[in-house]
Amino acid sequence: MSDHIESEGKKSVNNQSLVRGLTLLEILSNFPNGCPLAKLSELSGLNKSTTHRMLQSLQSCGFVKPTNTMGTYRLTSKCLSIGQKTLSSLNIINIASPLLEELNLETGETVNFSLRENGHAIMIYKLEPTMGMMRTRSYIGQHLQLYCSAMGKIFMAYDQRDYLPLYWEKNKSHIKKLTCNTITKLDDMKNELATIRDLGFAMDAEENEIGVSCIACPIFDINGKVVYSVSISLSTARLNQIGKTALLQHLKKAANAISNELGSSNSI
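Structure for IclR family transcriptional regulator, as requested:
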């Protein structure tokens, strides 16, 4: 009996350590240039000694390494390798990439592709501009906030109507003004999402960064659900030069083509 209790206790400790390690990896994924030990401790809710011990274990397994700044850690390319293997197993990338490359060549601008995961959009594919000089700060694997990103607003607009107030309540501590254009009032967002559904596209009108705009469209699966989104990012000055209508023509064509490949009869 005592052996059984001891065995169960070891399993519990091992499970706890696994969860803590995975939590640290997830936090570090949001700090590509590294995160200080004290900040990791704060964000994970672990004390510094436990955080340091977990980091040492992760480092010995090759998932984490110190940066040049003392006391700061970041993920290694081993994590990238695992991520790339995961992405390569997603058929959606094989389906969408030729159409996204065509969109990239047609517009010459940055093309982004994301999937929906709970309260975030996750960037799973990105093509740099072929003509424009501006390079965005987004990267594959990045978690995008729904309320202030074009692709995020697409996911909210095409979700069930009762999702928005639930999302707003759950994330109210994180919803803040990033620029003077960021929407931070629930009623304003309700109106924004209604407009998106009417027009079939969403805008990040300098809501994350002044001078940078983004236009996104939904991608429908065979069940008519929107679990992917495609967008074009560019400087606001270039958007004004090209014109929103011209970009939307190419963007909607690509979105509808990918939806069609997924077996959807929906279009925008």
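The chain has a mean pLDDT of 90.
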